[in-house]
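Design job #97: recover the sequence.
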């Protein structure tokens, strides 16, 4: 089955839809907000990866991370892990990391 990519004009997220061969264009709905206001994207060829492939890639990235107490290194790791999963996940993981940093400002390692 073909995979189509769209930009949702309502929530401004990238949408990837697996479409059946008999699907009609009016069946395209954003899974995030339910909008039908989608713009087709020019997408590149994508080869499916197994979950094991993704986990192996993430493990390799973890091995390459430097000092885990470094905010810069952890931010980079969050971004790389997100890209290993999905383009949208990169932004979400980085945002979650930033929220965690703000929530723990002033904490001491032995505190």
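Job complete. Output follows.
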């Amino acid at each position: 089955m073909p995979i189509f990519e769209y930009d949702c004009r309502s929530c401004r997220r990238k949408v990837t839809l697996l479409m059946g061969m008999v699907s009609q264009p009016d069946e395209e709905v954003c899974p995030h907000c339910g909008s039908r206001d989608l713009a087709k994207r020019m997408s590149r060829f994508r080869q499916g990866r197994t979950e094991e492939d993704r986990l192996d890639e993430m493990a390799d990235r973890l091995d390459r991370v430097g000092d885990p107490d470094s905010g810069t290194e952890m931010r980079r790791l969050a971004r790389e892990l997100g890209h290993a999963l999905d383009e949208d996940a990169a932004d979400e993981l980085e945002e979650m990391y930033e929220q965690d940093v703000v929530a723990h400002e002033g904490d001491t390692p032995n505190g």
